[in-house]
Every structure is written in C-alpha cells, then in structure tokens.
Write a structure and sequence with these properties.
Elements lengths: L1 E8 L4 H14 L2 E7 L4 E6 L5 H10 L3 E9 L13
Antiparallel strand pairs: 1-3, 1-4, 2-3
C-alpha cells in the first residue's frame, strides 16, 4: 500500500473536503481518501503510486490548490501494534 499526502490550500469546511474526496475517487483507483480542512491536507491510500501531475490537475480542477505532495509506503497499525517484536 502507498500513502500519498497532499497539502491542499483553500479548504474551509467539510463540504470542501467532500468535493476533493469525490474528485479523487472518480479519477483514481484508491482504497481510501480523507481530507481535513483543519490540517489542510488530503491523505490517499492506494495499491499503486499515483501520477502526481494528474493528481494535482484533479485537485486544482475542484477549485482548490494542490501544493506539496509526499509519498511513502503504508503499513496498517492496529490497536495491538505495540506488541509486535521488531
């Protein structure tokens, strides 16, 4: 799994978050997408890395502005993750 975090400017409410989430879901095969206007970011989980230029275009088309994009491998951590030996 890949976690993509996009800093997004212009979000002011939960409807703004919903607009971005819906646009990303329509454009890409994602497992999960959540946005936070308070943090000014959208977090996307997907099986494959997303095309950053296309992602920027999709978010910018909603009227908001995609800024910094960071990508990293994602490992699910559950309630008992602290019992793992490593």
């Amino acid at each position: 799994m890949i976690q993509t975090i996009v800093k997004v400017s212009g979000m002011a409410c939960s409807m703004c978050e919903s607009h971005i989430n819906d646009a990303v879901r329509r454009a890409f095969p994602v497992k999960k997408v959540t946005s936070s206007h308070g943090k000014g970011e959208t977090v996307i989980l997907s099986e494959q890395a997303l095309d950053e230029a296309a992602l920027r275009a999709v978010i910018d088309a909603t009227g908001y502005h995609a800024e910094e994009i960071s990508v990293k491998p994602y490992e699910k951590t559950g309630f008992f993750h602290f019992f793992k030996k490593g």
